[in-house]
Amino acid sequence: MDAQAPRPEILRPSPVRWLATGAICAGFVWAGSVIMPSHPALAWSCIAFFGLGVGVALVSLLPGASALVLNEDGFEIVSLFRRARVGWGEVARFGEVRVGLERLVGFDFVDGARGDGRLQRVNRRVSGFHGALPDRYRLDPAELVRRLERHRQAWCARHPGRA
């Protein structure tokens, strides 16, 4: 494989998915307001929970709120403006994973790269991977795995012995 780093990429989630999520949550907020007279505790719970869902969906539509940034050193997951960075040398593999009805991309850390946390062990038992990307970023999961692997393999070729 060519040791030259692939070009940096910024992948963004589908705004249609976030609009649909917000619309579904808004529907449940409306349903909560309808049942308010007969079931106030359930109604307030529904309004509060799904109202937060509407807020998260709207914030996720803002520029810079959500993305997957791939560069020569690793990838960065941006979610609700929070950033989590993972170096290519920390990842052992990428693969497709099914979480409920959703197909996502999972990844395993190299032994000792991020410790041996309880959450990683639970994730591994549930999905077969230590972690997963929160979105498909408008790509088929198989294509996203190929892109991530291309970046990881190029990093490994440029840093022999460190991968």
From TrEMBL:
Q: Does the keyword Membrane apply?
A: yes
Per the record, the domain of life is: Bacteria
Q: Report TM segments.
A: 16-36, 42-62
Keywords (A to Z) from UniProt: Membrane, Transmembrane, Transmembrane helix
* The protein's name in its UniProt record: PH domain-containing protein
Source organism: Luteimonas composti
